[in-house]
Amino acid sequence: MKQVVAALIVQADGKILICQRTKHQPLALKWEFPGGKIEEGEQPEDALRRELEEELGITARVGEEISRLRHTYRNGNSVELRFYRVQEYEGEIENRIFRDVRWVEAKDLPSYDFLDADLGLVRDLAAGALL
């Protein structure tokens, strides 16, 4: 099972950062929360800091774990996702790998075409259940 971490980067006004995959990535053009795979021997928080630096050019202060879930895609691939709150970071967000990056209201998240693994979390966030 692939181990993945993702950030719920939240602004003071409550908007959350979401990112759209490019047409060349697997699950093309789907929306997701920034993050990525935990490498061998890496702690989840360290993996998330590394991924956010690589993808967005920021040095994040990783907060508490908000949610953990498992999902199996139709092709049989399984993933365990850990979502962490990030309210503080250094640097300006720079889109280094995505097609698009947007700040959105939690209530508007369900209107985006998210990865299947993220859909339960998206519903919870939109309902105000987690943040």
Highest CATH level, the class: Alpha Beta
Shape category: globular
The unreliable regions are none
Nearest-integer average pLDDT: 96
β-strand percent reads 35-45%
- Lateral strand order in the biggest sheet: 4-1-6-5
CATH 2nd-level architecture = Alpha-Beta Complex
> Distance between the terminal alpha carbons, to the nearest Å?
27 Å
Account of the protein in words:
This protein is α+β, with helices and mostly antiparallel strands and 131 residues long. The chain has one domain (2-126): Nucleoside Triphosphate Pyrophosphohydrolase (Alpha-Beta Complex), CATH 3.90.79. The protein is built from two helices and seven strands, in the order ββββαβββα. The strands form two sheets. It has a four-stranded mixed β-sheet with strand order 4-1-6-5, covered by helices on one side. Strands 3-2-7 form a three-stranded antiparallel β-sheet, with no helix packed on it. It is globular. The termini are far apart.
